[in-house]
């Protein structure tokens, strides 16, 4: 039997050492081998035959064999060379578990002779087992609030090997929070402990992943590791915070209810309940702000809950707290500054603060009438107010100071034109759209006595019939005063003067209030010159103002004088006219003349003559000239005519009623021889008066002609003016009749200063001839000549008579 041996020089050295060891064992009496576990198949264990003293040759014959209780196949002997070698894998841990010594027993049996040898094989440990942890990951939950040096035991690793191979050392992966402490247990082995070296912060590192490594003492060493998952548990160590401590919000006033002001978002680094937050107004917040704003506790929204008025308050400072639900709770703070923006929601206000009324119409330009203040509760341009006035008033606004104005008089006032002004002050702000307000000031203009009473005309003509009853009202003067009240209360008085020997006031009086002018006694046309006087009108102002008006009173003639017969001779005493008439005179011969005068004037003095029918119905051969008073024959006289003829001539004026006088003419018919003397006497005696009488009548006729032509002229002139002249103020006033007074021969213009007298020789002075024009509107051009009169409609009648009579007269004259 041969031991097979294969191997290099290294194996030889190992073999040598094993041999020496085996020898040593034999020496001690029993063969002893040792083999490492996990040795490869064929690994030399020992020269068992040699060591037992057996010959190699006898091994086979003697049936050499190795017996092992249950483990016979682990080792085997090469019968060729007697070497014990490893047959199959030897696991020390399987054979002996964790016992430190491990060996097994081999019985070697040979026959012929039967011999039994005992061989002890020691199995030596090899580091074939790494340290092992029971789990691949260990979880630890550690509150972040744990203090430093807190210890957390860990489960250690186990190693199936023994001795050095099972001597474990631990290492922890590098980290800042934990270090490893290893505790040696009494019953061998160690266990690791984590020690907290730095405070944990869940918020920073919610979990840590560490690696724990165990290393055994074998050569080569083996390692095992376990991952440590450290969950950091939350503690309420973080207060909720806002990302800013001050929020500024701008919003317009009058925002709708529930408008969002701001949505606050606080954050809390903690988790769970520690992170749940509640928003609230801080206790510093005033009740008024709590009323205006509503805080949603859960979401942190602040909304409008009441009317927001810029004018109430333009900023709100809201302190907000946020509290988490941890125990104990933690609180965060912030401030919300709400700035309210103005809207143009307030109209300006205008106030008239003081007023000096009424304003005298003579007030100086620049007089302050009222002080006006404006205001607007809005701010900025919304509150900038400009003031203006209604146009076309004599006032202006002057700004005295911001928002204060004076209402000044801008131009002269005249109460008589405008007595009251309604002034509107309009205040307008600068917003858009702008708002405005108005205030009205009623400015009353006080009267000043600046207007004198004024008569419509500077001069009036008054026509009064003579023989008026005493105290009769002849005219009313009336002056207007444009002022008011006392300043317009006019009183009238007479401007006293002397009229001849008497005072004016003995003739006329003026009622102070009514302005009625009374004639105090009967006025006599024949006595009074046209009475001229002035009436003064004064108002009751202080000082009073006055003006005068001139009254021309014409006393109109009344037919109060009957015609008076003039005697045939120069200075005769009236009565009968007796003439001698030659029987030989032919028809139409003037035989006598009746002369009469009338103290009245005009128509009242215009005489006509007519023959009264003789008694007994005898046809008289005589007639009388209607206006001449000449008695002439109608036919040749004959013998049949009575020698003495008595004629009654009625002399009649044209007054109304007419007054008459009767003249008796005695005619004696004589033979032709007797006549001349008488007739020459008669003619001599009657020539001058007759001429005068004829003259008077010629005057009358000329006058009447002239009146008619004047009428035509006036009409023409009037028409011409009317057509050419532009209508000027007061130029034409329709209506009242005009009186034209004429001087008999010279001019038709009337002169109030001069008076023409027409004398009829023996008769009393004749006053002016008066004629009346028909109702024509007067023209200003004619004012100098034509004066207004108000004596009613009489004149038109007289005018008619004038014309009729004139025509009548002319025809008769022509006939003669
Ligand atoms: C809070 O959050 C809401 C919703 O994300 C957002 O609309 C709002 O603007 C935030 N508030 C602030 C003050 O950032
Ligand atoms: C605003 O709305 C709230 C809730 O709807 C209500 O209680 C409050 O009276 C309202 N405020 C006004 C001023 O209308
Ligand atoms: C009116 O007449 C009187 C007397 O002639 C005179 O004294 C007075 O001044 C006159 N008044 C006016 C306003 O002309």
UniProtKB/TrEMBL annotation:
Transmembrane spans: 698-718
On the tree of life, the source organism's domain of life is Eukaryota
In this chain, composition skew of type Basic and acidic residues spans 795-816
Main subcellular location: membrane
List the Pfam families: Cadherin, Cadherin_2
Domain Cadherin: residue ranges: 28-133, 134-242, 243-350, 351-455, 456-565, 581-678
PROSITE patterns for this protein? CADHERIN_1, CADHERIN_2
List every stretch annotated Disordered: 787-816
The residues forming the signal peptide are 1-29
Membrane topology recorded in Swiss-Prot or TrEMBL: Single-pass membrane protein
Compartment(s) of residence: Membrane
Keywords of the record, alphabetical order, are: Calcium, Cell adhesion, Glycoprotein, Membrane, Repeat, Signal, Transmembrane, Transmembrane helix
Q: Which PANTHER family match?
A: CADHERIN-87A, PROTOCADHERIN ALPHA-10
Q: What is this protein called?
A: Protocadherin alpha-10-like
């Amino acid at each position: 039997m041969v031991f097979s041996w294969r191997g290099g020089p290294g194996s030889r050295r190992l073999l040598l050492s094993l041999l020496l060891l085996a020898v040593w064992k034999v020496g001690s009496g029993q063969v002893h081998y040792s083999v490492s576990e996990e040795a490869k198949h064929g690994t030399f264990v020992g020269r068992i035959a040699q060591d037992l003293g057996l010959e190699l040759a006898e091994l086979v014959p003697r049936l050499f064999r190795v017996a092992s209780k249950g483990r016979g196949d682990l080792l085997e002997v090469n019968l060729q060379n007697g070497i014990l070698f490893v047959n199959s894998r030897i696991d020390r841990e399987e054979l002996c578990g964790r016992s430190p010594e491990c060996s097994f027993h081999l019985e070697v049996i040979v026959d012929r002779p039967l011999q039994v040898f005992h061989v002890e094989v020691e199995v030596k440990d090899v580091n074939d087992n790494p340290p092992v942890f029971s789990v691949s990951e260990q979880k630890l939950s550690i509150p972040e609030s744990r203090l430093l040096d807190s210890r957390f035991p860990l489960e250690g690793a186990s190693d199936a090997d023994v001795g050095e191979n099972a001597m474990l050392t631990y290492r922890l992966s590098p980290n800042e929070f934990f270090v490893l402490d290893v505790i040696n247990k009494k019953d061998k082995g160690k266990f690791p402990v984590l020690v907290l070296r730095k405070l944990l912060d869940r918020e920073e590192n919610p979990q840590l992943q560490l690696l724990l490594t165990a290393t055994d003492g074998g050569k080569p060493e083996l390692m095992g590791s376990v991952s440590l998952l450290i969950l950091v548990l939350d503690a309420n160590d973080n207060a909720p915070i806002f990302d800013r401590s001050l929020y500024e919000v701008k919003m317009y006033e009058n925002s709708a209810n529930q408008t969002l002001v701001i949505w606050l978002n606080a954050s809390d680094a903690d988790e769970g309940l520690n992170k749940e937050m509640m928003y609230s107004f801080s206790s510093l917040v005033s009740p008024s702000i709590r009323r205006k704003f509503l805080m949603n506790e859960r979401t942190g929204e602040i909304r409008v809950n009441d009317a927001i008025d810029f004018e109430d308050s333009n900023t709100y400072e809201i302190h907000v707290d946020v509290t988490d639900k941890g125990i104990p709770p933690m609180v965060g703070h912030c401030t919300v500054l709400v700035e309210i923006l103005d809207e143009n929601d307030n109209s300006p206000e205008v106030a008239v603060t003081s007023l000096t009324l009424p304003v005298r119409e003579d007030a100086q330009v620049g007089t302050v009438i009222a002080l006006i203040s404006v205001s607007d509760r809005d701010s900025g341009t919304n509150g900038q107010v400009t003031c203006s006035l209604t146009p076309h008033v004599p006032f202006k606004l002057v700004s005295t100071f911001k928002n204060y104005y004076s209402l000044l008089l801008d131009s002269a006032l005249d109460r008589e034109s405008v007595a009251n002004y309604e002034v509107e002050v309009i205040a307008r702000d600068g917003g858009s759209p702008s708002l405005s307000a108005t205030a009205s000031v009623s400015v009353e203009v006080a009267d000043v006595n600046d207007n004198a009473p004024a008569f419509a005309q500077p001069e009036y003509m008054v026509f009064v019939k003579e023989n008026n009853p005493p105290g009769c009202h002849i005219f009313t003067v009336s002056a207007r005063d444009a002022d008011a009240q006392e300043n317009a209360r006019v009183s009238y008085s007479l401007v006293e003067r002397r009229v001849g020997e008497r005072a004016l006031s003995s003739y006329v009086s003026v009622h102070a209030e009514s302005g009625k002018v009374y004639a105090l006694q009967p006025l006599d046309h024949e006595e009074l010159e046209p009475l001229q006087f002035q009436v003064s009108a004064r108002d009751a102002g202080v000082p009073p103002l006055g003006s005068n008006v001139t009254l021309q009173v014409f006393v109109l003639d009344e037919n109060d004088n009957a015609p008076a017969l003039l005697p045939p001779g120069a200075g005769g005493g009236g009565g009968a006219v007796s003439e001698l008439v030659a029987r030989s005179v032919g028809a139409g011969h003037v035989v006598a003349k009746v002369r009469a005068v009338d103290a009245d004037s005009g128509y009242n003095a215009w005489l006509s003559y007519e023959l009264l029918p003789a008694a007994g119905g005898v046809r008289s051969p005589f007639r009388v000239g209607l206006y001449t008073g000449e008695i002439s024959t109608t036919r040749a006289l004959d013998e049949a005519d009575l020698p003495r003829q008595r004629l009654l001539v009625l002399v009649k004026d044209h007054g109304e009623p007419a007054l008459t006088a009767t003249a008796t003419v005695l005619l004696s018919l004589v033979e032709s021889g007797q006549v001349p003397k008488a007739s020459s006497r008669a003619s001599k005696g009657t020539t001058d008066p007759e001429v005068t009488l004829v003259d008077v009548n010629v005057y009358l006729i000329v006058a009447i002609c002239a009146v008619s032509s004047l009428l035509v002229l006036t009409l023409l002139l009037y028409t011409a003016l009317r057509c050419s002249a532009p209508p000027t103020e007061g130029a034409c006033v329709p209506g009242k009749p005009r009186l034209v007074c004429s001087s008999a021969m010279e001019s038709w213009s009337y002169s109030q200063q001069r008076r023409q007298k027409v004398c009829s020789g023996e008769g009393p002075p004749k006053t002016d001839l008066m004629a009346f024009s028909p109702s024509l509107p007067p023209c200003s051009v004619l004012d100098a000549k034509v004066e207004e009169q108000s004596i009613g409609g009489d004149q038109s009648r007289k005018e008619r008579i004038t014309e009729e009579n004139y025509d009548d007269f002319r025809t008769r004259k022509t006939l003669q």
